Amino acid sequence: MICSTCPYCGVGCGVILSPAGNGLTVKGDPDHPANRGRLCSKGTALGETVSLSGRLVSPVIDGAEAGWDTALDHVAARFRQTIAAHGPDSVAFYLSGQMLTEDYYVANKLMKGFIGSANVDTNSRLCMASTVAGHVRAFGADTVPGTYEDLDEADLVVLVGSNLAWCHPVLWQRVEAARAARGTRVVVIDPRRSVTAEAADLHLPIAPGADVALFNRLLAAIADRGLTDAGFLSHVTGADEAIATACAESGETGLSLAELARFIELWCRTERVVTVFSQGVNQSSSGTDKVNAILNCHLATGRIGRPGMGPFSVTGQPNAMGGREVGGLANQLACHLSLENPDHRAAVAGFWNAPRMAERPGLKAVEMFRAVSDGRIRALWIIHSNPAVTLPEADAVRAAIAGCDFVVVSDVTGATDTARLAHVLLPAAAWAEKSGTVTNSDRTVSRQRAALPPPGQARPDWWALAQVARRMGFGGFDWDGPAAIFREHAALSGIAGGLGRDFDISGKAGMPDAEYEAMEPFRWPFTATRQGGRFFADGHFLTPDGRARMVPVTARAPAAGLTPERPFRLNTGRIRDQWHTMTRTGRAPRLNRHLGEPFVEVNPADALRLRLAPFSLAEVTSDSGRAILRVVVTDRVASGQLFAPMHWTGETAPTGRIDAVIAAATDPLSGQPESKAAAVTLAPWTAGWFAFAVSDDVLAPSTPYWARRKTETGLAAELAALTPPSEGAEAIARVLFGLPDAELIRSDDPARELTTLCFVRGGRIRALLFAGPTPVSLARESVIARIGAPVGRESLAPRAGTDQPDEGPILCACMGVGRNRIAAAIDAGARDVAAVAAATCAGTGCGACRPEIAALIAVASVPAMAAE
Ligand SMILES: Nc1nc2c(c(=O)[nH]1)N[C@H]1C(S)=C(S)[C@@H](COP(=O)(O)OP(=O)(O)OC[C@H]3O[C@@H](n4cnc5c(=O)[nH]c(N)nc54)[C@H](O)[C@@H]3O)O[C@H]1N2
Ligand SMILES: Nc1nc2c(c(=O)[nH]1)N[C@H]1C(S)=C(S)[C@@H](COP(=O)(O)OP(=O)(O)OC[C@H]3O[C@@H](n4cnc5c(=O)[nH]c(N)nc54)[C@H](O)[C@@H]3O)O[C@H]1N2
Ligand code: SF4
Ligand SMILES: [Mo]
Q1: Position 7 pLDDT exceeds 80
Q2: Residue 417 backbone phi and psi in degrees, to 5
């Protein structure tokens, strides 16, 4: 049994790993302070993602396998030559908040101290950069004041732009527990009725981007009611201006006066309020101002750093926080030190014995890839990220990477949109195979520990970075393992502490290897005199004068204005059971069953107006690109708004890459792109041919639309084309399945306009294709279950709800219970979540599906409207 940490979200749940056969069993760690044994659907399915199929197991140079020595020499030589010819700013690293602290530390040291450029940026630019900028403006440092216990002890939790039930499910469970224990109220501020909004006491469907206008209304009300905390304000500057600006705010919130009044009343009346914020705040062209608008309200009332109250940025990735600590962003140094402060630079240069310190900030992610595109950057190393999918203007980013002189990608698989463009691929040891530390949203540092041997030649990322540094001729990169790197990082944080920074874990700097091995989770700071706790209740801040800043901010509309040609506001984000570009969660069949295809949520009124039928296909177009997505008609989104998930890629649904559509408009201070407010056109994509295909092995579509997923029995795909294939369905199917000669049984159902092709070998079904002129309506999970079965007499095309029981989309991933079974339980009389759980077991695992079950019950409980 090995204690480690989940590699997905910033909740940072502790897990207990037990190697079993070739795989792992994964359980929640009852002793970890973040989760106390709980896990969500993604954490629960971790054991299913560690299989070695598709893993990158050896370095690859220009498509040919190579040894590490050759690959590392090659990378070092190309970086050295590029720097010699074009200077240090002609090279760059693009990193990730999923790297371990030790990996991150080495990359940052190499680039900022030895190569002498600050062109090291990370996907945290797309994620947390606005929060970092907002924290620094208000507090003088990027410090999260509170802890998770505040969620347990709050009387009001306000979730701003956070779909907590899906994206931080274990924190949502803590909030639910607080509701049950102390009656905590929950407000969700989100233009979309997310499952979290549905479960809240109050949902404020704010106009997209209007958060500053809303929090300015709140600040004005706080001042108007005399609720400012005069004592605390003696530790704050800028209050008068911020309040005056708030009182003058004229921006629309999109909310009714009653909704506004209810929110203001709740916030003003409740001292213990935690305002949790996430990507609805950060991913905005006014993201930093949104952060400060929220911080202003907490500073004005002194509700910060005390039990049950404070602003709380929940981090997305498992080590988003650790990346900020090592200085992974292009405008940071290390340990919360500033690149632009000569004393800070000198201190770090001395500690590293650095020959060539970067002296000014490097290029931020969006700018970095523009520099790749126009040839200012000629050598690029991408580690643990998939920017060809996840950066805005993704088609341009993909072209930029493809056109770059020299691209190195470190990944666990070569089958990603980005890895396919690399000159050199380096095989990384994956989560369960490597050791190091991560820091979660509440500053708790936890160990990740290896439980499995790395396959083939896979090695940890820190090792590859240190090897390249040494081969470039640099000293100071000869650690024998992550413990040594961690000690160095901790020692540097002590120097930062001496310079007045609060990120100081120097209490861990002298730790021997054995202690690092056994290290229990701890919260920073960690020094001889101070360990863990909250910040700022004492009124001491990290600005030059020690006082916090209230920043006057005014609402701005999203960067892209709506026009008659681009009349829809496109919002993007996450679904419950997938992680980003699905390179890991997509390997677990049960996680692919919740929502198996890229989609766009469209309000019923808009769907009617545009003649978009449910489950038809629609084209979403902006000035930067287009996507083709399955239409989900739902009033979760308001008229004029759309929502699409970010997860699909060239590997899983080439026309579903939503970042192709997102313009690279960024926040002027943080450089974070506006991923949630594109101006787009929506139109039917009038396919004349639809198909659903399942296979035990090969499934290689080439139709203009396709989306493919892994299943329990192989692969499944949705296909569509504008016209039926001229060569006929059989020819298409034989190529699709790679079965040129297999025995074929064909059946045509004229009533349903459905053709079924069944490929058989040895009396067993290998592959099935169902095709027709309209979206294929079938019990998909029943079809998937037929692969490998003997060809029987029953219909090859099961209809939903007819022959075999069909689960439909899986709502409870932990227990494998689908929407149809839950609906049946509700039909049979289950009237609350507990009754559904008793009847089906749904909702008894991680609980992330409970809001969806509650929603089904609510819908079923609406009395049928009397016919008029
Ligand atoms: N299942 C799952 N969980 C994850 C991840 C994942 O990929 N899958 N990724 C992790 C990562 S890296 C991150 S950063 C987090 C993100 O976690 P969240 O921020 O909770 O997730 P998102 O879905 O990106 O966006 C949250 C909400 O912002 C809303 N929103 C859009 N525009 C606005 C606006 O103008 N104002 C307000 N107030 N709200 C708005 C959206 O409608 C959406 O519901 O999730 C983490 N957890
Ligand atoms: N439209 C839109 N775009 C968005 C967002 C949005 O809400 N909307 N959200 C943004 C946010 S918040 C984020 S955080 C980003 C995330 O975007 P990315 O970081 O680009 O997405 P991931 O899929 O997490 O990419 C991680 C890569 O690392 C690889 N990998 C896994 N384990 C290891 C390892 O141990 N070592 C190495 N070297 N590689 C490994 C995976 O196979 C994968 O290719 O997306 C951003 N993009
Ligand atoms: S909430 Fe889920 S994804 Fe996040 S750390 Fe915990 S188990 Fe992992
Ligand atoms: Mo993120």
Answers
A1: yes
A2: -60, -40
User: Is residue 356 within 8 Å of 116, Cβ to Cβ?
Assistant: yes
Phi-psi region of 43 (alpha: psi -120 to 50; beta: other; left: phi over 0): alpha
Pocket probe for ligand 1: among 190, 577, 659, the residue whose CB has the most ligand atoms within 8 Å is 190
Which protein residue's CA is at the shortest distance from atom 23 of ligand 1?
A: 573
**Average pLDDT of the residues in 759-786:** 93
Number of neighbouring beta carbons within 10 Å of residue 619: 18
Dihedral of alpha carbons 726, 728, 734, 737, sign: positive
Question: Is 2.40.30.60 the CATH number for 1-51?
Answer: no
Tell me what percent of the chain is helix, strand and coil, each rounded to the nearest 5.
35, 20, 45
CATH 2.60.40.290 fits 55-123+319-431+449-477, yes or no: no
Q: What is the DSSP string of 201-215?
A: SEEE-PPTTTHHHHH
Q: How far apart are CA 126 and CA 675, in angstroms?
A: 8
Distances (CA, A) of 782 to 456, 786, 806, 808, 842: 37, 7, 6, 9, 20
Count how many Cα atoms sit within 13 Å of the Cα of residue 572 in the half-sphere of its side chain.
31
- C-alpha 578/C-alpha 588 separation (Å) is 10
Question: What pTM value is reported for the model?
Answer: 0.94
The per-residue pLDDT for range 608-651, each reduced to its tens digit, is 999 999 889 999 999 999 999 999 999 999 999 999 999 999 99
Helices (H) and strands (E) in the chain, counts: 28, 34
Enumerate residues with CB within 5 Å of ligand 4 (an ion).
Answer: 127, 316
Q: In this predicted model, what pLDDT tens digit does every residue of 134-152 receive, in sequence order?
A: 999 999 999 999 999 999 9
What is the per-residue pLDDT for 801? 43
C-alpha span between 545 and 531 (Å, rounded): 24
CATH fold group of domain 810-867? Arc Repressor Mutant, subunit A (1.10.10)
Given a cut of 50, whether residue 57 has pLDDT beyond it is yes
Q: Return the domain boundaries, the chain.
A: 1-51, 55-123+319-431+449-477, 129-313, 689-785, 810-867
> 641 C-alpha to center of ligand 1: Å?
16
Separation of alpha carbons 576 and 41, rounded Å: 8
The CATH code that applies to domain 129-313 is 3.40.228.10
Identify the three-state secondary structure at position 390.
Answer: helix
pLDDT at position 847 = 75
% of residues, the chain, pLDDT over 90 = 88
Residue showing tokens 């021997």: 512
422 lines ligand 2 (CB under 6 A): no
